[in-house]
Amino acid sequence: MTALRHSLMAFGLLGVMGLTACGGGGSGGDNPEEVQSVSVTGVAVKGPLAQASVAVYRLDVNASDLKGALIAEGQTADTSFIDSLSITPDLAGQVLLVEFSSSTSTTDINTGVTPLIRRFKTVIDADTVLSGGSVYASPLTSLAVSLAQLQADTASPYAGNGDGIISAAEFDSALDIAVQQVLSTLGFGWKTSADLLNTPPLVTSEAASDDELQQVLLCRQAIESVTVVANDIATQLLAGNATAEQVFDVLALDLTNGIIDGRSSSGAIELFSSVSSDDLQAVVEEDVSSKLIPGTNVTVGNVEALLVSETATTLVTQSTTPLSDGTVSSEPEAANAEADIDGDGVADSEDAFPQDATETTDSDSDGVGDNSDAFPHDSTETIDSDSDGLGDNSDPYPNSVDGDADGIDDPLDNCPTLANADQADDDQNGTGDACEPSSGGSWDNFNWDEANWQ
């Protein structure tokens, strides 16, 4: 999976921990080396979570919760970073599901209270962790993972075969597409090409350049924005009859039809049954820049200040000056209720080529978009190599305008395969005499047709 293969390296607060030891005394070498373990580093953010539980599982794409065997458990420290959690090298080649969950003692370090959304998950290659990469989970990674599971076995824009079983390859492909759909709807200006699963959602020691800090900012801005939207749907549109977490938990289901409209690909979503699609979409697409991040006095449009201030708790010493002086800045864009992963202005649900920004329509359903189809209304033809108006499939000389070299271009030639400059057609049937032996051609081994014998 593309998004998982390009992880940033660990940010230095917790590193690789090689535990090799030989027990006993004597000359040594008689006791086997203990298996090396590698620290799992990372953080969960909707505001960074302190004292949250962390569990690592083998990914099981056909389990209802994606959880295979439990590998390790740990927690996040007061700094919000994972503490005392490790995996062993025998997991190389495996894909892991990492879940962060809140308890009564878990706090968002910016608010001091339990976060509005209390459970986050992400998927990461074990090889990434073993090589020093970090785990980053957030509402957006949770949404992408859930959407990938729901859509992995479905067709366009996904690549499933619809057999009711999710293969590793189907999930792998689906996660890439799900990330793009999440970012095209709830990215709030973060590009669909962004590395959602591996971008730190807070300042780390590895986010040193302005470009890296910009990605951190865009990631965090989207996280805080989607939380504001979920909270507004719960408190305003649903009048407090649902929590922000309950709203967030059905967003992936809502996106299965490519549109946040209160419906999934299989029908209406019960939680949104009391509201109209228009009202729901109006809240989703509202301008969040001036809204306060719940529990803080910081607006979504000033996430930079939040990223700077929380370093006092995370203890990250990386310079935040570019965020403070405006060198690195961003204003959130409005969300989009309709997914458009190729950014061509046509929603995925209406786009015949949702992953190709150059094509949107296939009028003749031949698999070739109208923009590149020389015959967009003829399913038997797509190419005209010699630009003579005849499709290559039916053109006897697809690479020559006048294949028989009789001075008559093929589209106008009543016998394009035999030279007949006079274009004689005695029976006026549209086919030149040269191509109708019974109308003047000579009988020989090449044109003998018993049906014409009289």
Summarize the structure.
Residues 1-21 form the signal peptide. Residues 340-367, 403-412 have a biased composition (Acidic residues). The chain is of the alpha+beta class and 454 residues long.
Walkthrough of the structure:
The relative contact order is 0.09. By secondary structure, the protein is α+β, with helices and mostly antiparallel strands. The protein contains ten helices and 13 strands. Helix 3 runs parallel beside helix 6 and helix 5 packs across helix 6. The chain has one domain. The longest helix has 28 residues. The strands form five sheets. It has a five-stranded antiparallel beta sheet with strand order 6-5-4-8-10. A two-stranded antiparallel ribbon has the order 1-7. The chain has a two-stranded parallel ribbon with strand order 2-11. A hairpin with a 5-residue loop joins strand 5 and strand 6.
- The arrangement of helices and strands along the chain is HEEEEEEEEEEHEHHHHEEHHHH
How many angstroms separate the termini?
70 Å
Residues in β-strands, percent? 5-15%
**Range of helix content:** 10-25%
